[in-house]
Amino acid sequence: MIGGSRPITLKVVADAGTVASHEAVSIGLIVTELVMNALKHAFPGEKPDAAILVTYKVAGTDWKLTISDNGVGKPDLSASQKKGGLGTSLVQSLAKQLDAQVDIASDSHGTAVSITHATFKSAPAAARTQ
Questions:
Q1: Is the CB of residue 108 less than 8 Å from the CB of residue 72?
Q2: What CATH number belongs to 16-74+84-119?
Q3: CA distance 18 to 5
Q4: What integer pLDDT is reported at residue 82 of this predicted model?
Q5: Taking a C-beta distance cutoff of 8 angstroms, is the pair 42, 72 a contact?
Q6: What pLDDT shows up at residue 6?
Q7: 116 near 64, Cβ under 8 Å?
Q8: What is the pLDDT of residues 36-76, one digit of tens each?
Q9: pLDDT (tens digit per residue) in 4-27
Q10: E strands, the chain, where?
Q11: Comparing C-alpha atoms, which of 108, 107, 113 is closest to residue 64?
Q12: What is the 8-class DSSP label of residue 78?
């Protein structure tokens, strides 16, 4: 897809963890979509240190998946254009199936898309009365 003339480093840093097979499929589709978007859009020209980083952090039943790049960032879109395309809709739908939140941060130094699944347990009664 990117050819030898535009080398881009892809690094994955992941905690050990287990998920149900249907969740693994959704997570895999999200990673594929976001990495492909970064390959297509983040590096329109040559960039010697071009990199995409995929991180997956796990804490109990909570997890956070982040795909980030050091590319050109997303253009500043007007409110009417922020809806996004098919890929954005796909990622949003898959995140919803996973009961997860999508957050996007982008500037001229790159873009990071995080999908977070967090469960909040009630504090013990003693902690609530203080």
A1: yes
A2: 3.30.565.10
A3: 38
A4: 55
A5: yes
A6: 72
A7: yes
A8: 999 989 998 889 999 999 999 999 889 999 999 999 998 76
A9: 667 899 999 999 988 999 999 999
A10: 9-14, 51-59, 62-69, 101-107, 110-117
A11: 113
A12: -
pLDDT at 79: 46
Quote the tokens at residue 22.
């249907």
Integer CA distances (angstroms), 15 to 10, 31, 59, 123, in order: 17, 15, 9, 26
Query: Would the CA dihedral through 118, 121, 127, 130 be positive or negative?
Result: positive
Amino acid at 99: D
- Cα separation, 8 vs 50, in Å, equals 5
Note the pLDDT of residue 80. 42
**By the 8 A CB rule, do 51 and 8 touch?**
yes
The answer to whether the pTM exceeds 0.85 is no
Query: What are the structure tokens assigned to 27, written together?
Result: 């997570």
